[in-house]
Amino acid sequence: MSLFSTLTVVRIATLLIATSIAASPAFADVAPTATVVIDNFSFGPAQLSIAAGATVTWENRDDIPHTVVEDASPRTFKSPPLDSGEKFSQVFVKPGTYRYFCSLHPHMTGTIVVK
Amino acid sequence: MPDITKDTDQPEILSGHGAKRRTALSCMAWAGAGMLWTLNGGVPGSKLLGGTAQAAEVDRHAFSFVQISDSHIGFSKDPNLDPASTLKEAVDKIRTSKEKPAFMIHTGDISHLSKPGEFDTAAQIIGSAGLDVHYVPGEHDVLVDDGNSYFERFSKPADKKWYSFDQGGVHFIGLTNVLNLKGGGLGYLGDEQLAWLKQDLARRSSSTPLVVFAHIPLWSLYPEWGWGTDDSAQALSLMKRFGSVTVLNGHVHQVAQKVEGDISFYSAMSTAFPQPGPGKAAGPGPMKVPADTLRTLLGVRSVNYVPGKIELAIVDTRLSV
Question: What pTM was computed for the model?
Answer without folding.
Answer: 0.82
